[in-house]
Write a structure and sequence with these properties.
Membrane topology: Single-pass type I membrane protein
Strand content: 25-35%
Oligomer: single chain
CATH topology of the largest domain: Immunoglobulin-like
CATH class of the largest domain: Mainly Beta
Helix content: 25-40%
CATH architecture of the largest domain: Sandwich
Subcellular location: Membrane
Order of helices and strands: HEEEEEEEEEEEHH
Structural class: alpha+beta
Pfam family, one: V-set
Number of strands: 11
Organism: Onychostoma macrolepis
Shape: elongated
Distance between the termini: 43 Å
InterPro entries: CTLA4/CD28, Ig-like_dom_sf, Ig-like_fold, Ig_V-set
Number of domains: 2
Largest sheet: 6 strands, mixed
CATH superfamily of the largest domain: Immunoglobulins
């Protein structure tokens, strides 16, 4: 009889095991990033808590929300905040307030409180890459500067102010500088994404 009870207490939780999965990598823009945490369990949860942790060992809690699925929408406060919705087998959230130095591994922590038994599972983690907005001149800025230079040149010719070779030299130097700056910014943005793949691989090996 005792052995039977022990087996019941062991095998029931195993049959109701909760599993959480996450995408390998997501990229955010303007401080926001979408993240989906999928979960599977034989239970149909009614009350649960969703938390998001930052770092390889998940020691920094970014946001947490207790949700009754009769009202599946949630929002959190803070410099970095989360808002989202829980539907069948998944949590879709938007993480806002992130900066470039918040690029890291993020783990979903899901707890089911009702119906019993209590279940908890943590996802395998997602590399969240936050793109900083580089202070680079746009094509419109470049054309605007060129237009201003040409206007200044015409005014100088009209008023006989300054030699023409000097004005041409200023126009050429300004245009070349803007073009080189745009190329350098695009190169930095593309080079910044490369280390993220090796970072996630090293996390998974750990």
């Amino acid at each position: 009889m005792i052995i039977t009870l022990i087996r019941i207490f062991i095998y029931i939780p195993l049959g109701l095991a909760l599993h959480v999965s996450q995408p390998y990598r997501v990229v955010g823009k303007e401080g926001e990033v979408p993240l989906r945490c999928s979960f599977s369990s034989k239970l149909k949860p009614e009350e649960m808590q969703v938390s998001l942790f930052k770092g390889l060992h998940g020691r920094e809690r970014i946001c947490s929300a207790y949700v009754n699925l009769s009202e599946p929408y949630f929002t959190t406060d803070g410099t970095v905040n989360c808002r989202g919705n829980i539907s069948s087998g998944r949590v879709d959230m938007i993480i806002a307030g992130l900066r470039g130095n918040d690029t890291d591994l993020y783990r979903c922590d899901i707890e089911i409180f009702f119906p019993p038994p209590y279940l908890r599972a943590i996802g395998n983690g997602t590399v969240v890459y936050i793109q900083e907005t580089p202070n680079c001149p746009t094509a419109s800025t470049q054309s605007q500067v060129q237009s201003q230079s040409q206007t200044s040149e015409r005014e100088a010719v009209r008023n006989d102010v300054g030699p023409l070779p000097l004005l041409y030299a200023i126009l050429i130097i300004t245009s070349c500088s803007l073009i080189l700056q745009m190329i350098a910014c695009k190169w930095r943005a593309s080079a910044a994404t490369a280390p993220m793949l090796s970072q996630k691989e090293s996390y998974m090996k750990f």
